Amino acid sequence: MPPTHATELRRMLQVFLDITEERSGALSPRAALAKLKSALARGHLFSGFSQGPPEWQPGLRPLRLDRSTTEPACDELNLYGLLCAEVGAVKEYSSTSLLWNSLYAVQPVILQWIEFFHPMNRNIRLKDDAEYSYGVGVTLISLFGGLIYPRLVMETQQLASWIIGHRLDVYITDFWVNLPRYVVDPSGGTAARAMEWMYTLFRCLRGARMPARIGELLLERTSENPRRLCRSIAYYAEVIPVKEYATLTDNLWELACHLISEAPELVPSTVRLVSAIKYAADFNAWTIAMGSGFYLQNLWIRTSSLRALEISLRAGVFEILVDLSRKLPAFERALHENLDIFCSKSHGSSGGRPDSIAKYVAGTRAVKDAAAETRVRLESCDAAGASTLFTAPPRVSERTGTKVTI
After folding, report:
1. Three-state SS for 127?
2. Could you tell me the superkingdom of the organism this chain comes from (predicted)?
3. 273: DSSP letter
4. Measured between alpha carbons, how far is residue 7 from residues 1, 10, 222 in Å?
5. Using 50, 70 and 90 to split pLDDT, how confident is the model at 148?
6. Which residues does residue 65 pair with via DSSP β-bridges, in sequence order?
């Protein structure tokens, strides 16, 4: 394939990057769009991949092609996805726009490439080549963004139907669940972008009143294995840099709580999450500490086994909550709420030792002291303003880049 195709595509992407990043010497949006229209009119901008992937049909045996066969197209597809996203930041998407219709004229071919490249279809050997596995992963995330980001202006129900109709919900969910299996040692930025599109999908489907779809996808893509969902959540909590992607870290815990409510079959019987709360609290990342605490609390409530409670106790969850309750009033209520959860779970649940749990909680001096210390303040609180652990506390300091681990 002539190198001029990729060169022209890269130059066009740079034009729009200069605008969105407000670089000196950037063209005006009108001039950039005119330049793009001219390039599209010439008809060669997407020649590097417009013929589609190698011959393969869904349901047939994978082709198992090596890197040299598909790498050039993979590189240009990455540029295409980035270009669509950058154009979307400059010109709002409209289904009646001639520019967008021209830019998305290759969409059927793009969807074929996504289906071909997606590791779930096993057409390429990713684990044999760490660098190539990273390139394919980045390209898939780029294409998700290029196809969906400009369309976020659409009505929610319409967007959700479009995503489901093109199986992008399946591809995004599977990629999110299996990222560490598909990509060798992905960067924190790559994990953050995968997380971004999973969260976007979740919000879209909930906004369209289709939350059950998320549960169906998770059951399918995890093979109904609770450990796989738990490991995925733990993985993203560990690798996404808190400082650079603070909002996404918050979104992770929101997503995690909803995932276990939409797919109760995937609630694990054991969970090692206490360290996530402690790490966040040690560095004053209060919102993240509360988010991970919210997820842990949901697991306690929903699990059918007492193993999760016992593991949390051994990890020192109440000592951590006691310490937090002395730092922030929002956690005082949490201390008592979690005691109530433990008491209720110790009567009627199976799979554990309820007597030992109740004895441990009742006999923990630090918990008793903290309860006495905060009871007066709690009774005087406005119930509407301090009813749960998740009343947002003041942001007393900036988050740090320390990893939040599970």
Report:
1. coil
2. Eukaryota
3. -
4. 12, 5, 40
5. very high
6. 124
Inter-CA distances, 248 with 253, 323, 382, Å: 9, 26, 31
pTM exceeds 0.85: no
Residue 305's DSSP bridge partners are 350
Question: Looking up tokens 């301090």, which residue turns up?
Answer: 386
Phi and psi at residue 305, to the nearest 5° = -125, 155
Residue 175 in this model has a pLDDT that exceeds 90: yes
Query: Rounded distance, CA 103 to CA 42, Å?
Result: 12
Cα(230)–Cα(266) distance, integer angstroms: 8
Residue-wise pLDDT for 384-405, tens only, equals 343 333 333 333 233 333 332 2
Supply 166's token pair. Answer: 């093109």
**What DSSP letter does each residue of 65-98 carry, written as one string?**
B-HHHHHHHHHHHHHHHHHHHHHHHHS---TT-H
CA distances to 174, 232, 235, 257, 385 from 195, rounded to whole Å, are 12, 10, 11, 15, 31
Amino acid symbol at 406: I
**What letter represents residue 395's amino acid?**
R
Tokens of 201: 């999908």
